[in-house]
């Protein structure tokens, strides 16, 4: 699962930075390019919840293979796009089905014991982050070749096909065995963990393996998906998703005008800003590897770790907004990479802990939809705030982060009981 996640983001990141240049070469105006980009975001917004819930209904294997293959189709079409229409058409299957990482996270949630989930999710994010760091470098080199964008897109599609093969070869039959041995308890889990040094596996829930579900009537599948989505909408998870939205927008506002603000405030060239962003991404990968010791330090209290990381993130964004020199910007960027990585993992963990593992795909899908809303809202808020000052967007991000911290404090009793996270459906 870790190798496909690395290859997934590596493949995507060799193509995405080059797309704006390609659509411009096809004769599209900036307005048309912006509309196509917005439509892709809107498709992601509405499809992530549905596809995530669908993976709970039909099983991870069937849904993950479907999403990988249709994403590969989209990148093949992208490589063959010689008109703006074909370019826009190629984004449709990717916009609807490019939720491979979310389903992979749901699969990990099915397989890993709850106490080990933050550690495994952190390593998963670290593996994905390495792919995202290396991809743009390789893509920049390939695009220098003749017909470079098409070759890059075809390489990305081939990477997705390779991922489909890797997913097909996963030991799904062993998962079925684990499901049948559910009643044997955690004693064997602990024993196997000691034997091979890996995080102990828990019995697979109904989301991981659903061998008969893919052959149900499509109408039955759709009805089941809609019923599950309604259950999430009527649940008491509104504050968790609100915190995720507020913190996502706050962080997006920090990055929204980063290069422009550094140029206006300190005269820093875009090249240095790019190096600084790459530096932060690298530190984010390292932070994912440190989640294990950090969660043990907090005694697996996800709520308290999320609260502290959010407060630290808020303080660092404020430090950046008030920074009198580039050294302060460098300091804030260094620690922000750690706090955002920890916060991102903690909010996913809190969603799964409070919502229950039975609908992990649905929960992760809804979370992705919430983040998509943030990606749509943040550029608008950034543009308005920047009218007043280059420090306007991060200052607004600080205000939103403070609201998120206030929401978490108001609902503190909901998650804490004697210092531990309050579990649901356990």
Give a verbal description of the structure.
It is a single chain. The chain has helices at residues 2-25, 30-58, 60-79, 84-97, 100-111, 117-142, 148-168, 172-180, 187-196, 218-233, 238-256, 258-266, 270-289, 291-297, 302-322, 326-355, 360-386, 392-410, 412-415; strands at residues 416-417, 420-421. It is mainly α. It folds into two domains: 1-171, MFS general substrate transporter like domains (Growth Hormone, Chain: A, Up-down Bundle); 218-419, Up-down Bundle (Growth Hormone, Chain: A). A two-stranded antiparallel ribbon has the order 1-2. Helix 3 runs antiparallel to helix 4.
Short description:
By secondary structure, the chain is an all-alpha fold.
Across the major sheet, the strand order is 1-2
**Apparent shape:** globular
CATH topology of the largest domain: Growth Hormone, Chain: A
Number of strands: 2
Structural class, judged by helices and strands? mainly alpha
Largest sheet: 2 strands, antiparallel
Kindly report the name of the CATH homologous superfamily of the largest domain: MFS general substrate transporter like domains
Which CATH class of the largest domain? Mainly Alpha
């Amino acid at each position: 699962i870790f190798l496909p996640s690395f290859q997934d983001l590596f493949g995507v990141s060799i193509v995405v930075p080059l797309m704006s240049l390609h659509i411009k070469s096809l004769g599209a105006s900036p307005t048309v390019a912006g509309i196509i980009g917005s439509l892709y975001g809107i498709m992601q917004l509405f499809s992530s919840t549905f596809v995530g819930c669908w993976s709970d209904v039909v099983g991870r294997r069937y849904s993950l293979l479907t999403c990988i293959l249709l994403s590969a189709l989209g990148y093949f079409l992208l490589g063959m796009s010689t008109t703006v229409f074909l370019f826009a058409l190629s984004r449709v299957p990717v916009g609807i089905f490019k939720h491979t990482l979310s389903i992979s996270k749901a699969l990990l949630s099915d397989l890993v014991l709850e106490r080990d989930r933050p550690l495994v999710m952190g390593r998963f994010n670290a593996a994905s982050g390495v792919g995202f760091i290396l991809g743009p470098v390789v893509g920049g080199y390939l695009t220098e070749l003749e017909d470079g964008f098409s070759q890059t897109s075809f390489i990305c599609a081939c990477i997705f096909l390779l991922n489909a093969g890797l997913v097909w070869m996963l030991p799904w039959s062993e998962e079925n065995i684990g499901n049948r041995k559910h009643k044997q308890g955690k004693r064997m889990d602990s024993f196997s963990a000691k034997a091979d040094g890996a995080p102990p596996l828990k019995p697979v829930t109904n989301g991981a393996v659903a061998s008969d579900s893919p052959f149900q009537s499509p109408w039955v599948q759709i009805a089941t998906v809609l019923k599950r989505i309604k259950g999430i909408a009527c649940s008491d998870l509104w504050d968790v998703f609100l915190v995720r939205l507020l913190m996502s927008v706050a962080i997006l506002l920090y990055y929204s005008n980063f290069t422009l603000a550094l140029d206006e405030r300190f005269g820093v060239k875009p090249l240095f800003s790019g190096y600084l962003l790459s530096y932060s991404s690298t530190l984010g990968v390292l932070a994912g590897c440190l989640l294990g010791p950090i969660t043990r330090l907090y005694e697996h209290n996800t709520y308290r770790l999320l609260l502290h990381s959010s407060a630290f993130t808020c303080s660092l964004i404020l430090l950046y907004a008030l920074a009198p020199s580039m050294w302060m910007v460098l300091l804030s960027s260094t620690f922000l990479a750690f706090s955002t990585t920890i916060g991102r993992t903690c909010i996913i963990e809190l969603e799964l802990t409070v919502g229950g593992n039975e609908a992990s795909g649905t929960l992760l899908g809804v979370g992705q939809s919430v983040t998509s809303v943030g990606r749509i809202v943040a550029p608008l808020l950034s543009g308005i705030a920047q009218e007043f000052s280059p420090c306007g967007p991060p200052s607004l991000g600080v205000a939103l982060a403070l609201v998120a911290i206030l929401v978490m404090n108001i609902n503190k009793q909901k998650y804490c009981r004697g210092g531990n996270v309050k579990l649901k459906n356990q």
